[in-house]
Every structure is written in C-alpha cells, then in structure tokens.
Design brief:
single chain; 549 residues; mainly alpha; 22 helices; 72% helix; disordered N terminus; disordered C terminus
Length: 549
C-alpha cells in the first residue's frame, strides 16, 4: 500500500468528501459517523519515498506547466541577451584571417596571457541557474512534504527511512550546487545568475507548496514572488556583460577590492561572535537571526564569486582553488541546514536571501568592475531594490517596521502608542465594571476589546492564530452559547450571507448544529443581519414552533 498509485488516499478522500457533502445537504449526522468507522477500520497509511517523489513530480507538471514553459522561454530570451565569449580553441569560431589571400602566410592567433580555457559559454549561465533553482526547490519540498504528511497521519519513520530522506535531499542540493558552480565559472555575471537562481527557486517553491498543500500562499506572497521573477527578467537586460578573460590578480589587488574584502571579513567575525553570544536566545531574537543571516550570506557570496574565478585559473591554481572551494561549500551547506532550525525560518530565509543578493551585487561593482559594462546604472540598482522588496513582500511573517515598533514600545510608556491606549482603556473599563456593573459598562468593555484586537492585528502585535486560539478557548468555556455566537458570526459574514441565499441546504445544516431556538433568543450583535441571516433565523423559529406543538 505504500507504493505510488495505490489508491488508499483516493478512497479515503472520497469518503471524506461524501461525508462533508451529507452534512452540507442537511442529512442526519449519524451518516458521517459510519464513514468515520469505515475509515478507522482501514490499516494505517504509510507515505513511501517513491510515492512522495511521484506526487512531487506530478504537482510540478500538473500545476507548474505554464510556469515551466515561461521559465524555458525566459532562459532562451536571457541567453540571447548574454552574448557568449568566444571559446579558446573551439572549432565553431572562425579564425580572423580566413579571408586572407591563399599566397599569404596566416599566422595562428595566440590567446592573450590572461585567457584560460573555458568549457562553457556564459550564455548557458542563466539556463543552468534556472535548473539549479528547480533542484533546490524540489529537494527542499520533498523533505517538507514528507514531514508534513507524517505529522498529519501520525507516522513515525525509522532511522533508516529518515536517513534516506536526508540523503535524497542532500543529493538534490549537491547536484544543484554543482550546476550553479559551473554557471558562475562560465563567466556569467554572478549577480544575474544568483538572482535568476533565487527567482526560480521561489517560483517553483510556491508552485510545489500550493500544489502539495504544504503552505497557503496569500495575495502578498503570490504577488511578491511573481514581481521578483519579472524583476530578474529585467535584470538580464540591465545587468553587466559576461566576465571575459580578465587579469584576475590585478582586479583582486586593487585598493577598493582590499577594503571590501576587509569589510566582509570584519562583518563575518563580528557576526560569528554574535552567533555564539546568542546561542541560548529564543528563535525570534532579531540579533540571532541577523547574525546567522550575515554569516551565511558572506560565505555564500564568497563561494559564488570564488566559483566565478575558477574559469580564469588553470594548472595547480585551479585544482587548489577547487579543493578549497569544495571545503568551504561543505561548511556552508552544513551551516545552511542548521540555521533554519535555530532561528525563525519565516524571518531568516528572506533576510538571508536579500543580504546575499546585496553582497553579490556590491562585489560585482567593486571587485569585478561591473559598472564599466552597465549602460544604465540607476535602473540596474532600482531593479535590485525591487528584487529585495519583492522578497520582503513575499515573506508574510516578516515585518521589520512592526518589529521596530514593538521594540520601541518595550522601552516607552504604554500610553504613548495607540495599542497601549486601547489596552489601558480596556483595563479601566474592566475595573469600572467591577465597581459599578451595568449594561453601559458592558458595552464599553466590548468596544474597548474590539479596538484592542483590531489595533493589535493591524500592527502585527497579535497573530491571527492567537485570536483563533482565544475564540476556541471561549468556545470551550461557554459551550452552546458561544456556539450560537459563532454560527451567527459565520452567517453574517458577507461571503456566507450570499452563499446561504443560493444554498438553503447549508443554512439547514448550520441550524441543525444548535439547540432549537438558540439563534432566535440571541440579542443583535455587531454585524447587521442580511437576507441569508433572516432566513436562517426564520427557519430556526419554525423548528422551535414545530417542537412545541
């Protein structure tokens, strides 16, 4: 039953859909219980690696077909923009003296001293970056999908199975790392290749997570991801020219390059010390998140630009550089796998991506002198700003302004903020109600509580999940009375108000969840009742009359 296409999930999903359809149609509630007993009698399901890989591929093909076509078109378009560097010793490049008279002696042109043998054209850098992004997204979502399904089904995998999952994920990351290393070494500009890889990773990650139902992407997350992809496409036209055979020693020995390397080294050392100082800090600590993001970004930018240097080396210099590069890449891979477990991943991941993109862009301008080949510098910098802002927009749980505001609130009087004023007003109304309880004081408490919740949600002080937990606790404490409030809130929502008008069977199912007369005995609330609400209450009243008779 653990193989792909066994049909166990299909049968269970069909039974679940049939049970929900019976409830929505107003049928008795004992029918779904029979379905639940049938499902419970089945043996526990198991999600095998073959099936997980199959569902991952099917999700990418089924829901990501248009995105893959657009990706291939993007690769072809950008490959035409980034012109290839003539390959030394290639038979495809005609010698410049092929049109000389036959009696003249054609001297073979010798390459300059700084040219090294290249085995890839810079035009392949962007397509290889796209393939790398796909590998990274597939590897990450495979592990995430298996862990999510195990948590839903209550499955505990053996050590051998978990090692197989980790091994497959590591293979995917390793293949992607080798491909992007070749892309950098081909001479493709590092900022362009890195941004293309990140954009493909984010788009494929969104497609897979939505298709596999791992994470819900709201409007800001979807729009931010698509804006990033569009900005990267524009970057291919505004970015620097490919890195041709350049005197590597001269570029690295310039004073600006020395100062930039020293700045990166000092920043890395300070951030490393901050990592050890914040080991016991909570996951949400901004100092801990920033320190990890800076260290990983500096190492990532260093390996990216070191890979670009491999195409300009040969002999023992090339082999020693490749050995050092492999060692640093393994250390970076280990730290990258550990950082999300120690920090809040929702904040760490986008922050690390933005810092690494910024480091690559500045390294290209300072070390590689990309500014000499960029025709329009302001649009180039603006495109990078759009990329960074789109990553920030796509990160739903990251709000730097809210974090700064909350930090200021900790060290300032509470009454100096709108949220603090609302909280203090609520406390004062509670105290007044204890001294002199009345209907007016209850209304004041209700209005003050509403202001606290609305203000806290607007400023991201309260998470929607926190408010949901509060409602659940109230439901547990008050029982049927709270259930009637929730039912009225549901049917007063604009969406369900329109839905009840066209689907009266849903109103019947909603009314059957409450004791007779529960809705008709309630006082009017904050929401104005609509036609669907009135129909539901009328139906509830008629049921009560029938019972009395």
């Amino acid at each position: 039953q653990g193989h792909f296409g066994s049909g166990v999930d299909t049968r269970t999903s069909a039974r679940r859909r049939q049970a929900l359809e019976r409830v929505a149609s107003g049928e008795p509630a004992d029918r779904p219980k029979i379905a639940r007993r049938q499902v419970a009698s089945e043996p526990p399901r198991n999600l095998s690696l073959e099936r997980a890989c199959g569902e991952l591929a099917m999700a990418l093909l089924r829901r990501g077909g248009a995105a893959l076509i657009a990706t291939v078109w993007l690769a072809g378009a950008t490959a035409d923009v980034i012109q290839p560097v003539p390959l030394v010793g290639s038979d495809l490049i005609s010698p410049p003296n092929m049109f000389l008279p036959s009696n003249s002696k054609a001297q073979p042109e010798t390459p300059p001293k700084t040219s090294k043998m290249k085995f890839l054209s810079p035009a392949l850098g962007v397509p290889m970056a796209i393939v790398t992004g796909l590998f990274y997204a597939a590897a990450a979502n495979l592990a995430s999908y298996i862990s999510t399904q195990d948590a839903k089904l209550g499955i505990t995998r053996s050590r051998r199975q978990q090692c197989m999952v980790d091994l497959i994920t590591l293979v995917g990351w390793t293949i992607g790392g080798l491909i992007i290393t070749a892309a950098y070494a081909s001479g493709c500009p590092v900022p362009v290749a890195n941004a293309t890889m990140v954009a493909t990773n984010l788009v494929a990650n969104m497609i897979l997570q939505v298709a596999l139902r791992i994470t819900y992407y709201d409007k800001s997350m979807r729009i931010g991801t698509l804006i990033f992809a569009v900005a990267v496409y524009q970057l291919a036209y505004l970015g620097p020219a490919p890195h041709e055979d350049r005197p590597l020693g001269e570029m690295l020995a310039r004073p600006p390059a020395y100062l930039w390397f020293m700045l990166l080294l000092v920043s890395g050392l300070i951030s490393t010390a901050a990592i050890f100082a914040t080991l016991n800090a909570p996951h949400e600590s901004y100092a801990k998140i920033v320190s990890w993001a800076v260290v990983i970004s500096i190492l990532g930018a260093g390996t990216d630009n070191a890979a670009a240097c491999l195409g300009l080396l040969d002999g023992w210099q090339l082999y020693s550089s490749m050995f050092l590069y492999a060692f640093v890449a393994l250390v970076l891979l280990a730290l990258s796998a550990k950082a999300p477990a120690l920090c809040d991943a929702a904040t760490y991941v986008p922050l690390q991506l933005c810092i690494q993109m910024l480091c690559n862009m500045l390294t290209g301008l300072i070390v590689w002198k990309d500014g000499d080949s960029i025709k329009l510098m302001p649009p180039y910098l603006a495109t990078f700003a759009v990329c960074i802002l789109s990553v920030y927009l796509a990160s739903a749980n990251l709000d730097l302004f809210s974090g700064i505001h909350q930090r200021h609130m900790r060290y300032r009087p509470l009454a100096r903020s709108s949220l603090g004023k609302a909280v203090l007003e609520l406390i004062a109304n509670w105290q007044q109600d204890q001294v002199n309880p009345s209907a007016e004081s209850e209304d004041d408490i209700a209005m003050a509580l509403e202001r606290v919740l609305v203000t806290g949600l607007e400023r991201s002080t309260f998470a929607p999940s926190d408010v949901a937990k509060l409602v659940v606790e109230l439901q547990r404490k008050h029982g049927s009375e709270s259930s009637a409030l929730i039912v009225r809130w549901i049917q007063d929502t604009p969406f369900f108000r329109q839905y009840v008008t066209g689907h009266p069977e849903f109103a019947k199912a909603l009314q059957s969840a409450l004791p007779p007369g529960a809705l008709s005995n309630m006082e009017p609330g904050f929401y104005e009742r609509g036609p669907g609400s009135k129909a539901l209450i009328d139906r509830d009243s008629s049921t009560e009359d029938d019972t009395d008779e």
